[in-house]
Amino acid sequence: MVGMRFAKGHGTENDFVILPDPDGELELTEEAVRLLCDRRAGIGGDGILRVVRTRALGEALAPSARTAERAEWFMDYRNSDGSVAEMCGNGVRVFARYLVHAGLVDGDVFEVGTRDGAKEVRVGSEGDVTVDMGRVERQGTSSAKLARQVVHGAQISVGNPHLACEVPGPVADVDLTEPPLLDREAFPEGANVEVYTEVEPGVLDMRVFERGSGETRSCGTGIVAAAAAATPAGEGATWRVRVLGGECTVFLDSDGARMSGPAAIVAEGETSLLS
């Protein structure tokens, strides 16, 4: 059976199914996304990265993503439940690594189009990819009810919504087995919820419950959100953020945030799931 080509990649074990669709011909339904991301009946992943030329999107490109028009390639990201997400920090790194791996870009510095606009990436020879994440917006404070406790934190936008909550003890003690209950007025579209603690100067431990995916091994935008929440307002900082799947570094200054971390392509093949 002739199937559709795919690749599999991850950034700090936040893993993705990559679908090359340069001319925008694939109709990617929620059902198809859920099946592809199913770890038993499908390929398995925290989400889908559809690789499409930006010009192929035409009028489907949202006004909020208009700066993406200057990028040749657009990252159409879907959560594992089929929902569309504005931005994915680990996904951008994996997407950039795939573009280089597949010979779709020249050089190691280029832009990737996302629903949060164009993101400049720098692909290193040793596996790391650095992404200019843009401005990080503090939007006040809020709280969330987890399975066994209420946590309080900073409401932060990194192109998508986050609630980044400092906790006093080890993040391993926090129960993330159930979806957090959020203030719907503060987060009408839901949000990713991070719990973090500073384990030594400049080093954070973090776990995350991702909107549309559940607890994941890592979340790039969540890593940036936690670093921003841990930084006094108006100041710059550099943080090492340790997650279940590895470690990334976040650089914060007056221009916004940059994030650097590993990204790897681990498999390629064909799938008949979309036939």
Describe the structure.
The protein is mainly β and 275 residues long. The protein has two domains: 4-130 and 262-271, Diaminopimelate Epimerase, Chain A, domain 1 (Roll); 137-260, Diaminopimelate Epimerase, Chain A, domain 1. The chain contains three helices and 18 strands. It has helices at residues 30-37, 89-101, 220-229, and strands at 4-11, 14-20, 47-53, 73-79, 109-114, 117-123, 128-134, 137-145, 150-157, 161-166, 181-182, 192-200, 203-210, 214-216, 237-243, 246-253, 256-262, 264-271. Strands 5, 6, 7, 8, 9, 10, 11, 12, 13, 14, 15, 16 and 17 form a 13-stranded mixed sheet that branches. Strands 4-3-2-1-18 form a five-stranded mixed sheet. β16 (246-253) and β17 (256-262) form a beta hairpin.
Average of per-residue pLDDT values: 95
Quaternary form: single chain
Give the overall shape. Answer: globular
How large is the count of helical segments? 3
Radius of gyration: 18 Å
Domain count: the total is 2
Strand content: over 45%
Q: Helix amount, in percent?
A: 10-25%
Q: What name goes with the CATH superfamily of the largest domain?
A: Diaminopimelate Epimerase, Chain A, domain 1
Secondary-structure arrangement, i.e. CATH architecture of the largest domain: Roll
Main β sheet profile: 13 strands, mixed
CATH class of the largest domain: Alpha Beta
Strand-and-helix sequence, N→C?
EEHEEHEEEEEEEEEEHEEEE
Structural class: mainly beta
User: Unreliable runs, pLDDT <50, ≥5 residues?
Assistant: none
Pfam families: DAP_epimerase
Family: Belongs to the diaminopimelate epimerase family.
EC number: 5.1.1.7
Site (Could be important to modulate the pK values of the two catalytic cysteine residues): 162, 210
